[in-house]
Amino acid sequence: MTIKAFVFDIGQTLVYYPFPLNWSASYRPAFEHVARELGVFISENEYRHIVDVLGKYNTRTHPREREVSSDVIFREILAGTSLPMASLQEIKRLFYSYFSREARIYPDVEGVLAELKRRGAFVATLSDVAYGMDNAYALEDIRPLLKYIDLPYTSNDTGFRKPAGEGLRKIAADLGVDISEVALIGDERKDMECARNAGAVGILVNRSGERKEFGQDFEVADFERKGRSFFLKIADFEKKGPSLPLKIRRELHENAELSHEEHRTREILEAFFERETDFRVVRQDGWFFAVKEGLKAEEVVAFRAELDALPIPEGGRPVSHRCGHDGHMAALCGVALALKGVVPARTVCLVFQPAEEVGEGGEACARVLREELPAVLGRGAGREPAVPSTTAEKPCAGEKDATSDLPAIREIYACHNRSGYPEGSVFCCRGLTQPASEGLIISLTGEPSHASEPEKGRSPAEAISRLALMAADMNRASPMILSTVTGIRVGAGDFGISPGDGELRLTLRAENESDMKNLEAT
Fold first, then answer.
1. Are 106 and 16 in contact (CB under 8 A)?
2. What is the C-alpha to C-alpha distance for residues 466 and 442, in angstroms, rounded to an integer?
3. Buried-most residue among 109, 268, 278, 436 (CB within 10 A)?
């Protein structure tokens, strides 16, 4: 038996927590801590509501297979209290931090992980988070160990909780190893059942020395002495090959940046290309492209990815790659790795475009490529092609006419991740795949009044409700028109005030330009 991937549970396996596995006795003390830190008052009825909601999501008493996000749980909590919804992220942070105050990494852990990593084994984690805990908090307690871990996964990443085997199978697939070559190391029955359900090897860490029959394949008392030698004995160190695109995707995901602010993102990618590939990096103002010359150097095929992310909170951070640009960038890194040491038939240009989300990066990229790509390839200065300058006939960036000997981008490709299709498949269709979109904000101003006398004011609540329903009525399947309500705000949420202002936010999408113009006019 050889093991290529070691997957570790976190709590009581890598990290010691002084709290019991069932947090129910600490619900109130944890929220008393929240109240003190925020300087707010929580009534007895509100405490009862908080305890009821947390009890509902307590997997020690109510096991579930699918993970539930922290936002879902805490929105339900706040909905029954006077705590402001605007403080959701801070309330989550304070609640989770209450249970991490005395956490410590077992002293025998780091040496084993470092040795496994040094010898070339895959190392990952798979931990069920408590009450949907965001990874920013769940992984904080193993921050000193992250340098040894290829895939720091939790149930947030896999969508499943143990003992379901889906999470472990996802890790095997992401690492490119057979599930039979994966070992799950944990301290609970559900860890061993997860390994068995997935078809992996289960290794029980039994620090107490008590007799435990959890269906484990092997058992170790700790990570030192016999435990350390056992891990090294069963590891297959012959096939090193962590998925570099996967690792770069995770690093990009953790460093998401807004349009025109993609500084760290560029640093990560440029360092990757210079360290791991034989492409030439050409830096520009706020973006870059990478080039590898082919046998037909003057024929260029380009691939494009986007650098920027969206202002959507995730894991305690205000920005996230909810549109999948981290995956797109990692895919181009994979292209570069696939071509390492290979002379392609044509020159390959990988373009990393900034500010795609705000629609402001593409034109600058096209202009620079037209002007600078010939010089980069040593073919002289660029010039505009001698063709009629109509939209239909104007060539792509860098394209040449029949009399030009300059490099030409003959084809340029981009892809978009898409749910609903089998993992690892490529989906193509004729015609349009992504519609045009516009953001719309409708602000209404009336006059506030006391909540007991709404007739004395002019509340926009009814008007905004009607507008939101009208937006849904505009939707059409083919040709596609989609009006999505992305935000509704009416007043400040004070129970004693009938609001005098409100805001409705919509995203408009349409396949046809004429339909988009009609939506805008409507």
1. yes
2. 12
3. 109
120 class by beta-carbon count within 10 Å (0-12 exposed, 13-18 middle, 19+ buried): middle
Measured from the Cβ of residue 44, the count of other Cβ atoms closer than 10 Å reads: 7
User: What secondary structure does DSSP assign to 186-253, as a single string?
Assistant: ESSHHHHHHHHHHT-EEEEE-SS-----S--SEEES-SSTHHHHHHHHHB--S-----HHHHHHHHHH
The tokens describing 140, both together, are: 């904080």
The alpha carbon dihedral of 250, 254, 258, 259 has a sign of negative
Per-residue confidence at 374, pLDDT binned at 50, 70, 90?
Answer: confident
Band (237; pLDDT cuts 50, 70, 90): low
**Closest by alpha carbon to 168, among 147, 183, 156?**
183
Sheet with 481-490, side-by-side order of all strands? 436-445, 501-510, 481-490
The answer to whether the CB of 301 falls within 8 A of the CB of 349 is: yes
Alpha-carbon dihedral sign for residues 170, 175, 177, 179: negative
Pairwise CA distance, residues 219 & 203, whole Å = 5
Q: How far apart are CA 447 and CA 135, in angstroms?
A: 43
pLDDT given for residue 403 in this prediction: 32
Question: What proportion of the chain, given as a percentage, has pLDDT over 70?
Answer: 91
**Is the per-residue pLDDT at 394 higher than 60?**
no
**Residue 315, by phi and psi: left (phi above 0), alpha (psi -120 to 50) or beta?**
left
Nearest to 272 by CA among 334, 351, 346: 334
pLDDT over threshold 90, residue 120: no
The residue type of 1 is M
Tokens representing residue 107 in the block: 């002293």
State how beta strands 104-105 and 122-127 pair.
unpaired
Amino acid occupying residue 496: G
Phi, psi of 429 (to 5 degrees): -150, 160
Helix%, strand%, coil% for the chain, nearest 5:
35, 20, 40
pLDDT value of position 407: 66
- Between the alpha carbon of residue 104 and those of residues 27, 127, 142, the distances in Å are 22, 16, 9
94 three-state secondary structure: helix
Which stretch of 66-80, 187-201, 206-220 has the lowest confidence by average pLDDT?
Answer: 206-220
pLDDT digits (tens, 9 = 90+) for 279-331: 999 999 999 999 999 888 888 999 999 999 999 888 778 999 988 999 999 99
| Tokens matching residue 156 | 């947030």
Angle of CA points 279, 324, 357, to nearest 5°:
90
Contact 450, 444 (CB under 8 A): no
Higher-confidence residue: 437 or 88? 88
C-alpha radius of gyration, the chain, whole number = 28
Strand partners, 407: none
Question: Which of the 8 DSSP states describes residue 362?
Answer: H
User: What amino acid occupies position 516?
Assistant: M
DSSP 147: G
Give the bridge partners for 126, in sequence order: 153
CA dist 38 and 85 (Å) reads: 13
d(CA 389, CA 484): 37
